[in-house]
Amino acid sequence: MLTLVCEDRVGIVAAVSRFLADRGGFITDSQQYADRESGRFFMRVAFEATDSRMDGGTEWLRTEFTPTGDRFAMDWRLTDIGERPRILIAVSKGSHCLADLLHRWQTGTLAVDIMGVVSNHPDMRRITEWHGIPYHELPPNGDKAAQEAALLDIFDRTRSDYLVLARYMQVLSEELAGKLIGRCINIHHSFLPGFKGARPYHRAHERGVKLIGATAHFVTADLDEGPIIEQAVERIDHRATAEDMVRIGRDIETQVLARAVRWIADRRVLLNGCKTVIFR
Amino acid sequence: MLTLVCEDRVGIVAAVSRFLADRGGFITDSQQYADRESGRFFMRVAFEATDSRMDGGTEWLRTEFTPTGDRFAMDWRLTDIGERPRILIAVSKGSHCLADLLHRWQTGTLAVDIMGVVSNHPDMRRITEWHGIPYHELPPNGDKAAQEAALLDIFDRTRSDYLVLARYMQVLSEELAGKLIGRCINIHHSFLPGFKGARPYHRAHERGVKLIGATAHFVTADLDEGPIIEQAVERIDHRATAEDMVRIGRDIETQVLARAVRWIADRRVLLNGCKTVIFR
Amino acid sequence: MLTLVCEDRVGIVAAVSRFLADRGGFITDSQQYADRESGRFFMRVAFEATDSRMDGGTEWLRTEFTPTGDRFAMDWRLTDIGERPRILIAVSKGSHCLADLLHRWQTGTLAVDIMGVVSNHPDMRRITEWHGIPYHELPPNGDKAAQEAALLDIFDRTRSDYLVLARYMQVLSEELAGKLIGRCINIHHSFLPGFKGARPYHRAHERGVKLIGATAHFVTADLDEGPIIEQAVERIDHRATAEDMVRIGRDIETQVLARAVRWIADRRVLLNGCKTVIFR
Amino acid sequence: MLTLVCEDRVGIVAAVSRFLADRGGFITDSQQYADRESGRFFMRVAFEATDSRMDGGTEWLRTEFTPTGDRFAMDWRLTDIGERPRILIAVSKGSHCLADLLHRWQTGTLAVDIMGVVSNHPDMRRITEWHGIPYHELPPNGDKAAQEAALLDIFDRTRSDYLVLARYMQVLSEELAGKLIGRCINIHHSFLPGFKGARPYHRAHERGVKLIGATAHFVTADLDEGPIIEQAVERIDHRATAEDMVRIGRDIETQVLARAVRWIADRRVLLNGCKTVIFR
C-alpha cells in the first residue's frame, strides 16, 4: 500500500503506475484527488506482487521508490497491508465508545493493535482488562503537566501510532496537541446549529433541534476544531428529552468513531491543511 | 380539527374528549404532548361528525367549545379541515424552492392557497405568472421601510396567514419580524459546525464538512435563530466543490421547506417558546 | 402505564381520560392511533399519581379499570413503569447483537431483565457469563423437537416475556413460533430488492444493490415475514465487497435490534394484524 | 474526459497516464475500479490541456489513443467535457419526475440536452411546451408495435443518447429493451421487502413497512431488474396511509432519478455485467 501527497503536476500518476508496472505490481485499488485550491495531489494505491520481481519486500521497495518520491517532492508512505496501526485509547467514564472499539477489535473486525487504555478514572479498568489490554490510570491530581507527561510516555513506550480519545473528558494542552498533530483523534457531539461549552445536549434540547450528530476529527490546539474525518446525524422530535438526546448521541458517537478508526487503519485518511481527504 | 395549548393539569384530555363524544365527534387522530419543563400542554385532535349533532357547523362548535377553552385558559383553534392556509411567498433570484412549492400546489399535493409571490427582483415573474399567481415586484430602492410596508400591505390585503421566505435574501427588520411572529417561515442552510454570515457554503467547504443540511424555522428578530420546524442533511465527501455543495444544499432546502409548509398546512406545528411541537 | 386495543368508536378517549382524571392520574404521555381500515383503536397512556387517590397501587387500579375495559371490549394492559420485561436471548455464533444488548443492559440504558442466553453453540458462553448471565447451550443433536422443548422450558421456567433472536441461525418450528406469537423478535438483513434463502449478502452483492439494511420483526410461522417493528439502511457503492456488506449489515442489525428491544421495553409496540403500531 | 473498461492486467494505468502526460494532459480527476470477480477494470479520467500539444482537439486525440485502446482491448470513449448527452424523456400522467427534470434543465443545473418528451397521454403537453420542448403524443391504440416503432423513430431522428422513463407506465417490449440496452433508464419504487406487480404502495402499506424507497436502473428485458444506478429511502411510521406513501415515494423517485441522470450526464456510470460502477 502506497499513500502520497505532493504538489500537483503532469506525470505523477504516470510515474507511480509505471514504477509499479515495471516491478510486476498489480493495482487492486487506486484513488487520487487533486485539490484545485491548494494545488496538492493525493493518492492511495493498493497493489499486489504478480511475480518474483517484488520478492525484495517492503524495505527493498521503499529504497526503490525513493528517487520517484524525491523527484516529485512527495510526502509518501509505503506499508505492508498486514501492518496494523498501534493505537492507544484514552477514556474517562463513558463506556460506549471504548466497549465498541474493544468488541470490534476482539472479533477481528477492526484491524488495529490496541496497545493500552489510559484513563483519568478507574471505572473502565474491568472491561479493559477482561479484554486482556493494559489499563493505565492517570488520576487528575492537579498536576496536568505530569499527567500529560505520563500519557505521552505510555504513548511513546508502547510505540503507538495514534491516540484515540474515546470520550476522554480532559482538554489536551496546546503543547500535547501539538506533539500529536495528525496522530490524535477525538469524537464529539454535533448539532445544527452548533453548541460549544458545557452541557451541549441540554442546550440543544432547549433550542429544539431536530437532528443530533457526532463528528470525529483530528485534534489540534483549537478544541473541537481540527480536520473533520467523519460525521453522522440522527433525527429526533420534540418529545426527546435531554436524556434521550444524550443516549441517541452516544450511539452516533460510537458509530462515527468506529468508522474513523477503521479508515485510519486502512490508511484511507490523508490530511489536507485543515481538511481531510478520505479515500473510501 | 382542534389544536390547543394550555397549562398542563389533570382533566384536559378528559374534558376535550368528553366534549367531542357528547356531540357525536369521532376522533380520527389525536396527539398530545406535555412539556415537563415549561408545564405546557399541547394537543391536536382531528375528528369527524358521526351524526346530526354537529350539523351546526364550525362556527356553532366554536361557541360550544368556548366554556371548555375558558375553563383551562386554553389558547385554542378550531378549524374546518377544508380550510386551507393562505400563504404569501417571498423570493429573490433562487428559483428552486419557489418552483417546487408552485409545482406541489398546482398538482394538488400541497393544501395551501398561494395568494401571491413578492420579490425584490424581476426574475421569478415568468414562472409565477405561468402558474396564474400574481407577482409583486418590490425593488430595493434604498427605502427599506417603504419596501417592507408594501410587503406587509400585500400580506394584509390578501388576508394571508403565513409569509414563506423561499430564499428571500433580504433580512426582515426587527419590526416586521415582530409583526409576523409565528407567521413567517424561513429556510436556510445548516452545517456542522454552523457558519454565520456571508458565503456559508464556501466557508463550510474550506472547513471540510462531511454533511450539509438545511433548517426551516419561524422567523424572529434574531436572524436564523427562530423556533426550528424541520432539518435534514446530506452526506458529501472531500471531492465536493463549493459549487456542488450549493447545488446539494438547494435540493435539501427545497425538500425541507416543502415539508415545513405541508405541516403548517396540516396544523401540525405548535409553538412552544423558542421550540416547536410537531405532531407528525 | 396503560396500553389498550379495541374496536374504534366514539367515547373511548373520553372514558379513559375521565377514569384517570377521577383518580388524580396526571397524563404524562398519551398516544392514540385509529386504523381506518381495520376499525381498530390503539392507545398508550403514561400517567402519574398526583395525590393519595392512587395509593391502592397497580393491582387496585386494574380492578378499578376492569368495567371500563369490559364496556369497550378492550384488550388492555396496565403495568407499573418500573416493571421491566424479562427477556431471553437466543444466539448462534455471531456476537454483534448479543454483545451490544449485554453492554446496553449492563450500563443501564436498556430497561429489561435478561433472564439468560440460549445458544446452539458454545462460542458466546464466555461473554455471557462475564456479564453474570446464565448461558444455556442447546446443541443441535438432530432432535429438533427436544431442542425446542428445552428452549421453551427455559423460557417458561425463567418466566420470560420475550424471546429475542439475536442472530439465532435456527428456524423455529411452526409449533414453537405459534406458541410465542407476539413474544418472539427476530432481526434479519434487508435489501432492495429482497433476497430470500442462503448467503443473501453475497447475492445482494452480485445484484449490485446500493443500499443494505436490516429489519426487526415479530416471528410468525412464515420465516422473515412477521409484523415489522423497525428497519434501517446504509448506503454502499460498487467497491463494497460481499465481506464489507456483511460487516456493514452487522452494524445495522445491531442498531435496529437494540431499538426494537427498547421499544418493547417501553411498551411502545402494539400488534395490528400483520402490522405494528409503534408509539415513539 | 476518457472512460474505459477492459480486462484487468498490469500496466493499464501506467499506459493511460503516460499517454496523457506525454501530450501535456493534466489529470483533474481520475477514478479506477478493478472488479476481482469479473476481472474487469474500469477507469474514468478527466483531464485538461496544459499547453499546445493538445490543440489537435478531441478527434485528433481519439486517433492518437486508438493504439493504446487496441493494445489492452479496451472499450473506451473519449469525449469533450462540453458534449452534453441528448436525452429523450418518456412520461405517462405522473408529473413529478418530468417537472423536476425540466426545472433542473432550465436552470442549468442538469447538463443534458432534452430532445423531446414522448407520452401515451396528453396531460404533460402544457408543461413540456412551456419549457420549449417538443411533445410527442403516442396514444396506446392497441398496436404496441407501432407505438414502439414511433418512439424508436423519434429517439433515432433526434439522435438521442438516452431514453429516460420518468414514470412511463408502459412496459417496453423485450425487443425495444434489447435495442436500448445500456441507454434506457427507469425509476421505480422500492420497498423492504420488495413488492412486484400492481399497486405496490398499497401492498407495502398492508405489510406495514417502515421504509419506502426508489431505485433508478438501466432497463433490461426483465422488468425492474436491470443494473441499479441509485437507490434511496425515507422513513415512515404506522400512521402513513397508502396515499402518504405514494406522495413520499414520489419525492424519493424525483430525487433518485435526477441523481441518476446527472451521473449519466457526467459519464460517471459504467456497466459491469448486471451491476454498475458509479464514479462519484
TrEMBL record, chains A, B, C, D:
Q: Name one Pfam family in it.
A: ACT
Recorded GO molecular functions are:
formyltetrahydrofolate deformylase activity
| Residues at the active site | 224
Q: Which pathway does UniProt place it in?
A: Purine metabolism; IMP biosynthesis via de novo pathway; formate from 10-formyl-5,6,7,8-tetrahydrofolate: step 1/1
GO biological process annotation, one example: one-carbon metabolic process
SUPFAM superfamilies per UniProt: ACT-like, Formyltransferase
Q: What does this protein do?
A: Catalyzes the hydrolysis of 10-formyltetrahydrofolate (formyl-FH4) to formate and tetrahydrofolate (FH4).
Name of the featured protein: Formyltetrahydrofolate deformylase
Tell me which species this is from: Sphingobium baderi LL03
